[in-house]
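Handout, section 4.2: multi-component inputs.
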Amino acid sequence: MNLSPETPPATTVSLADIKRAARRIATHVHRTNVATCQTLNRMVGHQLYFKCENLQRAGAFKFRGAVHAVSQLSPAQLARGVVTHSSGNHAQALALAAKTFGTSAHIVMPATASPVKRAAVEDYGGVVVECPPTLAAREETALAIQRETGAELVPPYDDPRIIAGQGTAAWEFLQQVPQLEIVIAPVGGGGLLSGTAIAASGIASGIRVLGAEPAGADDAWRSLASGHWVPQTDPRTIADGLLTSLGKLTWPIIQTHVSEILTVSETEIVNAMKLFWERTKLLIEPSSAVAVAAAMSESIRNLPRSMHIGVIISGGNVDLRRLPW
Amino acid sequence: MNLSPETPPATTVSLADIKRAARRIATHVHRTNVATCQTLNRMVGHQLYFKCENLQRAGAFKFRGAVHAVSQLSPAQLARGVVTHSSGNHAQALALAAKTFGTSAHIVMPATASPVKRAAVEDYGGVVVECPPTLAAREETALAIQRETGAELVPPYDDPRIIAGQGTAAWEFLQQVPQLEIVIAPVGGGGLLSGTAIAASGIASGIRVLGAEPAGADDAWRSLASGHWVPQTDPRTIADGLLTSLGKLTWPIIQTHVSEILTVSETEIVNAMKLFWERTKLLIEPSSAVAVAAAMSESIRNLPRSMHIGVIISGGNVDLRRLPW
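Output:
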């Protein structure tokens, strides 16, 4: 045995974990459709396939990870409930996952969170706990609830149960469209992208996995370019699901298995979102439009031959009163 | 034989015509998905099924009738092309149908038509011919093109080929969800509703077919209530696909086979449209929201037991820069 302290930590999630997760959550999640669009294909010169996680329960892929995490809790843990801090799709996903397993979810949200998102969490039976709008306040509040109730903390991405759960989307996608040569997923904290990368590279080493990131929140691009983890500071993008830094678990997975990060401008994001709505009649949120925009970017259009390209549509939770056009 | 002149004209379209149409257009149309939504089911206390013709080619059921009409033209007729006047979904549908069969389509549109709709027609290769924004000018211009080019006039609804084509949506729907007890379709000129009524009543006499109409354009409701054809005058509704009067062919079919017309207010239409977008992540146009609103109306909610109710989502062509909320 030669385990020096310098040995990098092993990838904590394997394809086998994702397959197990897929079986475990099969009765709880939707096997979402794959959409295609001839107009978009013509525009990019490739065959594009869209894995519609906007049609997933609670409106985003996040339900996969959340319900996978909750499904692994013991009866004693389930009796004490779950807790997280999030103002995004993870909040709704965990509330619904908790409801699915008959347990309670405390969701810590900043007092500034939109009433729409708050209502969505409460709709699924989640208990919203307000806190000041700082990361420190959110973490402290969640910790206090944990101490008080004994609830299990279910983080949004940096957790092997979550990564394995998110990876089930790509696992399903590659069963539905085995000819995929490239898979593009948006990257924020990296739960979806790392799960996708493990699934795709595990199934066929020839599949290239690309991340899609707003140029205004490009920590993953910087991290991959520099070869070391770069935190996200001062993100500026309408893709509100992609504001966070990569995690301690997700970063090494992405470094190992992701070929490239494609960055897109805010204009490209808004244009892709509007075009996608108009052409496919499917609502996608800005974070998903980042991946669509990447699939339509010059780097992809300029590939030397027509390819089968999969795009993971991460979610469709949009405030319809505040559209970016 | 006892065919007095008073004998009402025979229904000009039969279930057999619809089945033939379905076979004829099968390779050209999408077999659209049926969507369901647990939240909406809970809200109404029924099992709702949505036939997603917003995912049909050219974004609406109209393509079924248009491609069916064009598919029946002789080579000589195809050489001369087709013509219609429409500023709505029939315009795009006929342009794409013509393209599908390698012929030309002249589409007469009022000069006031939105640039978005005009561009969509041109995108499908249609030749847009502008005219003043009156019905008389539209008809004259179409007639002039017909005389000049020998093109075949393909009307938007009052034509047996069109009615049979539109009926294929319900025919497919009842194959996909055989347990349907009620089918609701929006009614404007009545092409979709009459085709739906013939298909549904032909398949099982016990299925109730209901029309859905804006209270601000309720000629079908008035016609059915009074027992004689009442023209639409001064319609006021955001459901721009439902402004027209019933046709000479569609009215007697609707009178014979449709149980009831449900009318809904503008507020109900807008609320249903927004709720449907939010919950299903599927874009529907106001005319489709009329049918959703009808399915959520008191008359349906108050039915004595939970039923299997199908709603035909007619289309998803929306100007995203001008949303009604």
